[in-house]
Design goal:
This protein has about 280 residues and is mainly α. About 75% of the residues lie in helices and about 0% in strands. Helix 1 (about 1-25) packs antiparallel against helix 7 (about 145-170), helix 2 packs antiparallel against helix 3 (about 60-80) and helix 3 (about 60-80) runs parallel beside helix 6. It starts with a helix and ends with a helix. About 40% of the residues are buried.
Length: about 280
């Protein structure tokens, strides 16, 4: 409990302020510093995911393959942003990578061991879009108007949800129902605290920056709720991967937090929907 509490305090008082400063004071319109961080996170997260999916990352070709698969959509995102290319390049890179990975799987694995083939094929295909393609949307954020505000509001919504859910569950939810078998420490009270926090944060964002939300406060709070729910799904998905792999953490890169995916799983899963919501807002 102490270790978990300290890790969340470190995230709240060190990691989040660092991220805010990195984004707000980046002098480039493309947010190059954030994009470089996203690229590094994407490669690291893909390698961690390959490990969770049962792929042997100690073999050089698997390690390099995971890194490349994680980097391809992010690099294509850079091309979209830096050269004002169509976002179709981003989606096309994902489809091409999926095709190449599927071709490799069909060529490399036999079909006489059905369970092994399904596991390897499923893991390889999931790895193609998760996490690289999900993270790639962070780079696409920079094509939106007021991108810095939009990105900061996203991180505040997701990370405040996680922090307040933990605090609410720890203080008031110890005896409340635990609805998720994949994550037995999550309580109904904690979940409620987190989702209400996401709604409030996005509502405050609408009050401070009304030009971001052309449909008004109701749309902002709905977006906060959906972002919070998807963040919870991302956390549960990661818990499922870790339980299947028999691991407590996805890695050991971040002291007190475990791996990269342990800290970014919620943000990762909510990122695409959040991008398309603002794409809709700015298209009217």
């Amino acid at each position: 409990m102490i270790s978990n509490t300290l890790s969340r305090l470190l995230l709240f008082f060190i990691a989040i302020p660092f991220l805010i400063l990195l984004i707000w004071f980046d002098p480039t319109p493309e947010l190059v510093l954030l994009n470089i961080l996203v690229l590094l996170v994407g490669i690291g997260a893909s390698i961690e995911s390959a490990r969770l999916f049962g792929l042997n990352i100690h073999r050089l070709r698997v390690l390099l393959g995971a890194a490349v698969v994680g980097a391809v959509p992010l690099i294509s995102g850079f091309l979209v942003v830096w050269f004002s290319w169509s976002p179709i390049v981003f989606y096309a890179s994902i489809m091409v990578t999926l095709t190449l990975v599927l071709t490799y799987v069909l060529a490399a694995y036999t079909v006489d061991k059905g369970e092994t083939f399904y596991a390897k094929a499923g893991a390889s295909l999931i790895l193609t879009v998760y996490p690289g393609a999900f993270l790639g949307h962070f780079i696409l954020y920079t094509t939106l108007d007021h991108s810095k505000l939009i990105i900061l509001l996203f991180f505040m919504t997701v990370f405040m949800n996680d922090s307040l859910a933990y605090v609410g569950g720890m203080l008031l939810g110890k005896n409340s129902p635990k609805p998720f078998l994949l994550s037995p420490k999550k309580t109904t009270v904690g979940l409620t605290f987190g989702l209400v926090t996401s709604i409030v944060v996005m509502g405050i964002g609408c009050w401070m920056f009304p030009f971001l939300f052309p449909f008004g406060p109701a749309s902002a709070m709905a977006l906060g709720l959906i972002t919070g729910i998807l963040g919870v799904f991302g956390d549960l998905l990661e818990s499922g991967f870790k339980r299947s792999a028999g691991l407590k953490d996805s890695g050991s890169v971040i002291p007190g937090r475990g791996g990269i995916m342990d800290s970014f799983d919620s943000a990762l899963f909510a990122a695409p929907m959040y991008y398309y919501a603002f794409l809709l807002f700015q298209s009217i």
